[in-house]
Structure formats: structure tokens, C-alpha cells
Design goal:
Radius of gyration: 17 Å
Helix content: 40-55%
Largest sheet: 4 strands, mixed
Bound molecules: zinc ion
Number of helices: 7
Distance between the termini: 31 Å
Order of helices and strands: EHEEEHHEHHHHE
Shape: globular
Strand order of the largest sheet: 1-2-4-3
Strand content: 5-15%
């Protein structure tokens, strides 16, 4: 449901956004082979775009451009993840995994309504540029694995409280750091990925 009570003159925009949200919600959950939850999500116009910890509320930035709907898909990415706060070893899930995976969803499913592109420059680094570079790195890992289910499997792995490093070791027999070096070697300049 879209709660536009704070901005009643934005009825039409709210209707468009909720339609967009519904369609993309289904697609993202299908990609991750997840059942769409029955829980209602309240979306409202706010300052900044975010989803709450309970995954029941999304704020959509009222100041966003009219075509910038991809950020809703990024938030849907967080809802699908629903990662535990701590893994089974008591460590936090790395921010680059959370944001990189969500940003990957935005690129994969949400780029139809904006000219948003995924870019990672030579200066970028996945642990500090946790949005673009991390998403680009995850997509590169997916391609390298040649497995269509790489990202859903990675997602399930983290949901079950395991470390991403161990998953990468299982799939590639390499640690995250040397994989990143390979990534940089493969794409030495600014790269825009076609999926
Ligand atoms: Zn995010």
C-alpha cells in the first residue's frame, strides 16, 4: 500500500509507483526462488529512500526525479535478503555484500525506467564503494562462475548465516582478495556492464 497522506496532491505518482513496485517485487522474488510474502508493505513519500529493519516500511524520496524508480528495486533487494544481523560466527554481514547485492537487483531489474548504469572505476574498491563497485564485482563473479543460480545460491548461503568468503572458496577455490585483483585485471578501465 502507498500512504501518500502527507502529499495528497501526489496521488497519481503514488499509483504509478505502487504498480511499478508490485511488478518488480514479483520478479525479484522469482529470480531468488523465494516465495512472495503475504505481509503488507507500507510505502510513503519521505526524505531519503530506505527500508526499515522489519522490512515492513519503505520510504521513497519525494525529491527523487520522476523516472528514478530503480531505487525501489534496490529496497526490494534488501527485503529479499533479510540477512541475519550476525552470522553463525557472531560477525556482521559485510556492508558491501548487503548493498552490492541490493544494487545488483536495481541494475538487473530496475534499469528500465532510468538511465542508471553500473560503473566501477579503476580507483573504486568494493569494500569502500559498497554500492556500484560491489555490485559490479558481484556481477563479474556471477559471469565467472557460469552458473545461472550463482547469485540466488550466494544469497541463501548468507541467509543461512555463513560467510561469503567460504562460498567464494567453494565455487572458485580462491579468496575474495585475489578474485578482486582478477576483476581489476579483467576490467582495467571504467566499465558499464550489459547483463
Ligand atoms: Zn541499500
Amino acid at each position: 500500500m502507498f500512504d501518500y497522506s502527507m502529499y495528497q496532491n501526489h496521488y497519481e505518482r503514488a499509483q504509478k509507483l505502487v504498480e511499478y513496485f508490485d511488478g518488480h517485487y514479483q520478479r525479484v522474488f522469482a529470480f531468488f526462488s523465494k516465495k512472495v510474502p503475504n505481509d503488507r508493505i507500507r510505502i510513503f513519500f519521505g526524505k531519503g529512500t530506505w527500508v526499515n529493519d522489519e522490512k515492513t516500511e519503505i520510504s521513497y524520496d519525494i525529491y527523487n526525479s520522476l523516472v528514478d524508480t530503480g531505487c525501489l528495486v534496490h529496497e526490494i533487494g534488501h527485503i529479499v535478503q533479510n540477512y541475519p544481523e550476525k552470522n553463525t560466527y557472531g560477525e556482521d554481514t559485510p556492508e558491501w555484500v548487503k548493498e552490492g547485492m541490493a544494487e545488483h537487483c536495481r541494475y538487473r531489474f530496475g534499469k528500465d525506467d532510468s538511465d542508471w548504469k553500473i560503473v566501477c572505476s579503476q580507483e573504486g574498491y568494493y569494500e569502500t564503494d559498497i554500492y556500484y563497485c560491489a555490485a559490479a564485482f558481484i556481477i563479474w563473479l556471477e559471469k565467472k562462475s557460469q552458473r545461472r543460480d550463482f547469485i540466488p545460491k550466494l544469497n541463501n548461503w548468507i541467509v543461512s548465516g555463513e560467510r561469503i568468503e567460504d562460498f567464494l572458496m567453494c565455487v572458485f577455490k580462491q579468496d575474495v582478495r585475489p578474485l578482486w585483483e582478477d576483476y581489476k585485471h579483467d576490467f582495467p578501465r571504467e566499465v558499464i556492464y550489459p547483463l
